Predict the structure.
Amino acid sequence: MQILLIVLLLALLPPPGLAIPTSESRVKGLPSRLPYHQRKRCGPVSAYYGQKGSDWDTYGLDAWLTRWWSNNTAVISANSKGFAGAFGQWAIGNPDWSCRDDGSSSDCDFDPCNSEVLNRKGNDTRPAYYVMESVNRLHAYFIGLSQSFQAASIGAALSKDQWATTFYKDKDVKSVTALKEALNGLSTFIGVAAAFGGLGGEGLGVAAGASGALFQGAIQVAVPLIGQQPSLLSDPCEIILSIGLTLPIIKLTEVHSQDDTFQKSADMGGILGTIVLESIKGFTAANNVLMHGDSFEQTGDIRSYLQDGLFLDFGGIDKVAVIETMNKFLLGQAINALYRAQKVFIMGGGACGDGQGIGDGPRGQNMWVCRDGKVWYLYYWQENDVLSITSHQWGWTNAPPGSDKLGQGVYAGVTVQDIINSSLDAYNVARYSYTTDTAASRAQDALTKGWANPGKAGASWEGVFTIPVCDVGWAVNGTIDDKNYILQPHGHDYRPH
């Protein structure tokens, strides 16, 4: 007991250099006159440390924050820092608590333990602390994304090769502007990289409301940069089997200026690097708009992002995951755009191992995937490259341009199997109408319901690739002339019938 009393007395002693309160002061309990930050113990807020995301709903933070917002609208409007400044002044006595992304490393800092204002809020201490923590961690999320998206870390792998000569062999001249428009899907996948890589771990089944705003907000970062990705308008199988591989491909606008030809100007690394840089600016803008209390691109104000406690216990950005995920998506979408502009397609649907009378695909060339008991092959229709009056004059089957470079070096994040699996999943969901809206809807559904992890799937996630799929499995038991020539290996002497 004596030891306990000594400990208690020592805890009440002021730091060296301060006057010891008089006996009268001690009787009246006036050690509280000491500056709050010099006390030996943390304030009441410490009881709320170790919070979980579910605590947000348990203690009714959505309703509490809405009431606070309504009661302080004038204060928010009057503060030059908007919501963050007004809340900082109310919660911790700091009107300069802006949480802006403007180069400052301390404008979102706060010390809850030693904040006298916060610890004297009574029943409002807990919700005020939860909001402060969530705002601070949302700010850290955007800062972490911006740092992860630095062109130095992502763009380096994307600018080493002239993509037009690696993954493109079509003889038509194409417009770089049209190619950018074909990359519209990147807006969705930048959102995926942000939402999944940024939230780290599995990223599955997180709060639907806040994650929806977060995902849509990340998508809006890239939307102004690129146009609508067209989809295939007809079944390529019908055309393949009737007139011989005249695939319905994306028609990119032809240009006549030799200074702007596809071959000379299509440095995909430069295009993708620009998108990444603009994305960094977009994350900065999103942070600043939300912290001010304004709505970001029709996704709602900061309350939409904080709801359900998504950021209440957010542990920080997994920058490695963001970089890896973004690289895979950028690589995949860029190659998809180039392949979609050429006669690249997937054909299969028979049993794995073939031998069902519909031909044999290029099994020895790692250009196939066996899944659910069916085999699928990746093809490219090679235009005739020799003078001939034989069937060569129409062309022959080959591996797609650059496919031999996939899965290694700077293209290690994308494999032929990713191309096939991603395209098959997109085909199974929407056949030839898998649009960017479909991709966004599916990714958000996976995020909120937890049935898949697009970020972890990388380039194999559905819709990263939308290469046309021709399912010829029906021919196994069907009646068709020369059906044993439907599937063919790659080679100068082979042409599917």
